[in-house]
């Protein structure tokens, strides 16, 4: 997602125009400008008068402007809905992690009086929080049409989940989470995958000079700091029976992205060029968005989270109110996933898009004929500007209606997932200390600014009731505390309004 103007950052490069729609609309702009040039030349050189009545120009222009405005507004609404849905995922992920990490006790006893060690409890809770992180990563890949679990940022988070319905572990008993990801190209060599080992791990691809690899997360970012980042290093090292796909796999850049005007020659080199499924553009040079692919991975992850909730309830480790909160947040994850799927797999009807584009083409095609008698040669830059303006708004609506791909203006799903990862690790870094270990210290001044004594001073003599030094005439106790708090309000109100 482009948050700032990329044209004025760093050096000059034609590649920076990829953040705009110039690369997508320039063939059409060039065509209508050529038509205007032809009309102006023939009419002004008295070869033939091509001027026609312009009575319908204003009416049709107003109608097209309203329709294009509606098209862009509806697409932007989908864009904002996608961002709101990812905010919901972030909020629900934080809530689930906090309930699991803080409210599920570390010291636990099963119903049969068997005790779980603190180490086992910490490992269990951290593994379930890793599943919370896996949910957002799985949703990201699903929205981008990348199905399965064998990705560098996803596999290590869920590889410990059971693969078979029975202990025997045969191919016929493989659970849906894994069966949907297997293919004939990389079959399992045995009934079970090889166990992970520290010696044999999946190495993250990298170039020899230490720069980011072709599959790097941040290869399209200009910052040298980001180019040196490798988020997969923050994940576990696990072994897989097949190569893991990259966490971020945008289409490769071609010479046409740097010099879009050369795309006119692509027609001649197309028969000699190898097929590249990732480099997708239509006949007019516009980018083709990846189609949404239904994935069962987020659903399966949510099932395991609900199973953990039932497990804690059955053993009496969660209070009903907390269990309700955990259940509601897991349901929020699933609701959000359904709404993201709605945005991803429900494009604007093709008939509406085709009719709008054809109407705009006809309007721009007949525009020079209607104004050549009054603008003369000025219809050439005028038509170029009008086609650039109208086609640009139409293309912007087409680009942002599905904001989950790798375009410069798409939502930064990778950044959202990394932010969730950082937040979940921050939650699990919390040691859940007893309040008494940090409240009654010399660093804490609970009654400031009215009373700047520390909590240690206030509680040093347990037998002495609280009495403020400014009010020695009052009886010590809660009445004095309330008077101090009231003075706090007055002081803060005055200080903060000055």
TrEMBL record:
Bias regions of kind Basic and acidic residues — which residues? Answer: 453-474
Annotated stretches, region: Disordered: 186-249, 453-476
Q: Cite the entry's keywords alphabetically.
A: Cell membrane, Ion transport, Membrane, Transmembrane, Transmembrane helix, Transport
Annotated localization:
Cell membrane
How is this protein situated with respect to the membrane?
A: Multi-pass membrane protein
Chain segments annotated as transmembrane: 25-43, 50-70, 360-380
Single annotated GO MF: chloride channel activity
Please indicate which superkingdom the organism of origin belongs to. Eukaryota
What are the GO cellular component annotations? Answer: plasma membrane
Instruction: Identify this protein by name.
Output: Bestrophin, RFP-TM, chloride channel-domain-containing protein
Annotated organism of origin: Roridomyces roridus
């Amino acid at each position: 997602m482009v948050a700032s103007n990329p044209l004025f950052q760093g050096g000059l490069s034609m590649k920076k125009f990829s953040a705009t729609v110039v690369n997508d609309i320039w063939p059409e702009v060039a065509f209508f400008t050529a038509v205007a040039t032809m009309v102006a030349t023939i009419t002004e050189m008295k070869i033939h008068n091509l001027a026609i009545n312009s009575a319908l120009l204003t009416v049709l222009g107003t109608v097209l402007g309203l329709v294009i405005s509606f098209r862009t507004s509806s697409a932007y609404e989908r864009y904002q809905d996608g961002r709101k849905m990812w905010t919901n995922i972030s909020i629900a992920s934080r809530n689930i992690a906090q309930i699991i990490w803080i409210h599920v006790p570390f010291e636990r006893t099963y119903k049969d009086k068997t005790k779980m060690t603190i180490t086992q409890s910490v490992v269990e809770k951290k593994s379930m929080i890793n599943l919370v992180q896996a949910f957002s990563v799985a949703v990201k890949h699903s929205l981008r049409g990348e199905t399965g679990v064998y990705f560098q940022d996803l596999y290590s988070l869920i590889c410990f989940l059971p693969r078979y319905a029975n202990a025997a572990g045969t191919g016929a008993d493989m659970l849906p989470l894994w069966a949907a990801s297997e293919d004939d190209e990389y079959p399992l060599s045995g009934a079970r995958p090889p166990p992970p080992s520290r010696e044999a791990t999946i190495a993250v691809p990298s170039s020899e000079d230490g720069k980011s690899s072709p599959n790097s997360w941040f290869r399209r970012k200009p910052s040298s700091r980001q180019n040196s980042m490798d988020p997969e290093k923050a994940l576990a090292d696990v072994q897989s029976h097949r190569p893991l796909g990259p966490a971020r796999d945008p289409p490769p850049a071609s010479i046409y992205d740097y010099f879009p005007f050369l795309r006119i020659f692509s027609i001649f080199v197309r028969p000699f060029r190898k097929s590249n499924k990732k480099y997708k553009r239509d006949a007019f040079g516009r980018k083709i968005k990846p189609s949404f692919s239904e994935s069962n991975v987020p659903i399966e992850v949510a099932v395991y989270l609900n199973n953990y909730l039932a497990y804690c309830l059955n053993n009496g480790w969660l209070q009903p109110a907390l269990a309700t909160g955990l259940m509601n947040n897991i349901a929020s994850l699933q609701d959000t996933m359904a709404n993201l799927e709605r945005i991803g797999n429900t494009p604007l009807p093709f008939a509406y898009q085709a009719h709008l584009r054809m109407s705009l083409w006809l309007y721009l095609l007949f525009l020079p004929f209607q104004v050549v008698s009054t603008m003369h040669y000025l219809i050439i830059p005028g038509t170029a500007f009008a086609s650039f303006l109208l086609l640009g708004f139409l293309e912007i609506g087409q680009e942002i209606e599905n904001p989950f791909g790798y375009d410069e203006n798409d939502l930064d799903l990778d950044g959202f997932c990394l932010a969730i990862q950082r937040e979940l690790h921050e939650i699990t870094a919390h040691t859940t200390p007893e309040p008494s270990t940090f409240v009654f210290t010399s660093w804490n001044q609970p009654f400031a600014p009215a009373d700047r004594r520390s909590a240690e001073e206030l509680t040093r003599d347990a037998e002495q009731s609280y009495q403020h030094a400014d009010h020695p005439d009052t009886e010590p106790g809660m009445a004095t505390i309330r008077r101090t708090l009231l003075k706090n309000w007055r002081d803060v109100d005055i200080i903060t309004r000055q």
